[in-house]
């Protein structure tokens, strides 16, 4: 599913990741904790092939597809939620309308809302970011601070979604400064001083 081998990354001479290795198998739920600036987002960007490591390698299965919510999700700000979701999924010719609508309704959003996404609250944007990370039936899902801006009911919906994804054999990695209560992690790691520890 995923092999991260001896990843290192520096920015302007400042090391962020020094020697990070990790294996993730199908159906696993992994939590990575760490302080702000510890390199969690950088690690996820490298896994998602959005950033090149200075050293090391990332290998995923040839049929595996990555979905990611990393930092603040970027959208077509003056388009509606459904236009955004359809646009993103169509980049890979993988728009599953029925599943996308199911996710939208699960998070209490209105699929017929024509309001521009620029008008959405932080929590609403976060929900759309989570939806786009899973709506194409991605097999490896990277979620960076996924519950930021979510209220209690939305966090419960998020937990139910993660449980369903794991039951379906998907692998999910969550990075946050603390864990999300209610989730049963297969592995809990901490990123500190550029290294992962249990």
Q: How does the major sheet shape up?
A: 6 strands, mixed
Radius of gyration: 17 Å
Q: In which range does the helix fraction lie?
A: 25-40%
Order of helices and strands: EEEHEEHHHEHEEE
Summing up helix and strand content along with how strands pair, one would put the structural category as: alpha/beta
Beta-strand residue percentage: 25-35%
Low-confidence stretches: none
Q: Count all strands and give the number.
A: 9
Mean pLDDT across all residues, rounded?
93
Distance between the termini: 20 Å
What shape does the CA trace take?
globular
Spatial strand sequence of the major β-sheet: 5-6-7-3-8-9
Which features does this protein show?
198 residues; alpha/beta; six-stranded mixed beta sheet; three-stranded antiparallel beta sheet; 5 helices; 9 strands
Give your account of this protein's structure.
There is one protein chain. The protein is an alpha/beta fold. The protein has helices at 40-47, 81-90, 97-106, 122-134, 152-167; strands at residues 2-11, 14-24, 29-33, 55-60, 66-69, 140-144, 171-176, 187-192, 195-197. The chain is globular and about 45 Å long. The chain starts with a strand and ends with a strand. The model has no long low-confidence stretch (mean pLDDT 93).
Task: Summarize the structure in short.
This protein has helices at residues 40-47, 81-90, 97-106, 122-134, 152-167, and strands at 2-11, 14-24, 29-33, 55-60, 66-69, 140-144, 171-176, 187-192, 195-197. With 198 residues, the chain is an alpha/beta fold.
């Amino acid at each position: 599913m995923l092999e991260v081998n001896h990843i290192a990354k520096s920015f302007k001479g400042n090391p962020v990741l020094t020697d990070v290795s990790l294996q993730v198998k199908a159906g696993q739920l992994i939590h990575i904790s760490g302080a702000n600036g510890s390199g969690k987002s950088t690690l996820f960007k490298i896994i998602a092939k959005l950033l090149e490591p200075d050293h090391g390698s990332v290998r995923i299965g040839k049929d595996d597809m990555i979905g990611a919510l990393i930092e603040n999700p970027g959208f077509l700000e003056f388009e509606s939620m459904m236009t955004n979701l359809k646009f993103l999924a169509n980049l890979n010719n993988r728009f599953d309308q029925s599943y996308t609508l199911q996710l939208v309704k699960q998070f209490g959003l209105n699929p017929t809302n024509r309001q521009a996404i620029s008008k959405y609250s932080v929590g609403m944007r976060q929900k759309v970011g989570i939806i786009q990370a899973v709506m194409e039936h991605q097999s490896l899902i990277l979620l960076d601070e996924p519950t930021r801006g979510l209220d209690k009911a939305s966090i419960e919906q998020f937990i139910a979604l993660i449980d369903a994804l794991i039951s379906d054999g998907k692998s999910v990695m969550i990075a946050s400064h603390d864990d999300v209560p209610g989730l049963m992690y297969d592995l809990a790691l901490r990123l500190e001083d550029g290294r992962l520890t249990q």
